[in-house]
């Protein structure tokens, strides 16, 4: 089958999964078996399409608001079957990026046994001219062109899926969600961007004694030379000889470092799984592979702090408010139902440790409930959820007794201080002052227009209902939620009329 044919079939399978995701299949063995078969076909198609699609599938595995639980479980087993290519295939890349005398950059290269073979690059141990050991990452030939072609194909598939399920697309905004994933992945195609992320990560790590980021020795779009991380990855590390107190400190610093990225720096490592976290008993933890990062804006970061604070303080109402503001409620949203969902969920999370509760799964549960209740979530939340789930898995390898929320409460003071500094910076103060000036001028102009219309008896207030906006069975309750604002507006107009009438009386009366 052609590549386009596979993409079309995968799209059809995913749309079918979305359309059937609300069915009760747990009581129907035949229907359940059908869902399992479809989930396996989805996984098989993704793996057949190659590494880029596997990465997208791994993101989908953290999005219960997009795919069914059956597909979620299947995607958790996605395997990126990457073969090791001979070094001679990478030599042209090194020559193009570093010049014909590229071998002079190294004293030795271990070309026989690569340190790693990833979907987009291959990694080798090298010795630098000064004797230091380094890591050389070389992009696979033709990678950029293939990935951009896959991105274009996935965008087309997303548009088709959006037209097939418009009501669901109104909640998920499939194209925007995909774009956020692409934005996070594109630096993997340009190692100079990854190097910039590493340097920013180093600046972020200065305040954490046990957190490190490799040094960048050299970077071009397709070649990256960096220092060697100390220790072993958490997938292979034996921590039995590390004292419990030190393990807890490493785990705490990992979480605190990531919280700083999410809420203060607003740039975070999007893939901090155990394979990308190296641990050394004396040097702490080193985060590698900064190709996939996420970025959030100031408003989303602040709302994220409010959401986690509400979780930590067992405040379901506060969580609902912050989560809804991070996205938007659709016209058919059930906010009361979402409140009930969170009232049941939040108390289970507040004091649980990573050993007792999967915090990443909790965030994905909030995603699922929000989607089912008609609340569109910010596209970047999916990448945040993936990052949180990954760092939680890494910390669980080091110190499972830690509580992600308790660590958040510990560092909340520092986070708030940094946010306050940001708000009070010269740039932000100038911006707020400018906004007040513009708003003041606009308000004066608008008030002048209203008073002129009142004086000329030209002001008209129209009250009516749009179809489907009533209180009863013909509507969806929108008016019921807006009665208070409408009444307030009416009282304001009445007050303005009284003031204008009194002013008019004084102006026309004779002494």
SSE order and pairing:
Elements: H1 3-20, H2 29-49, H3 51-60, H4 69-75, H5 91-98, E1 108-109, E2 116-117, E3 121-127, E4 133-139, H6 143-164, H7 166-172, H8 174-185, H9 191-205, E5 211-212, E6 216-220, E7 223-227, E8 232-233, H10 244-265, E9 267-269, E10 277-280, E11 284-287, E12 293-295, H11 298-312, H12 316-326, E13 328-329, H13 335-349, H14 359-372, E14 375-376, H15 380-398, H16 404-423, H17 426-455, H18 478-508
Parallel strand pairs: 5-11
Antiparallel strand pairs: 1-3, 2-3, 3-4, 4-7, 6-7, 8-10, 9-12, 10-11, 13-14
Helix pairs in contact: 1-2, 1-6, 2-3, 2-4, 6-7, 6-8, 10-15, 10-16, 11-12, 11-16, 12-13, 13-14, 14-15
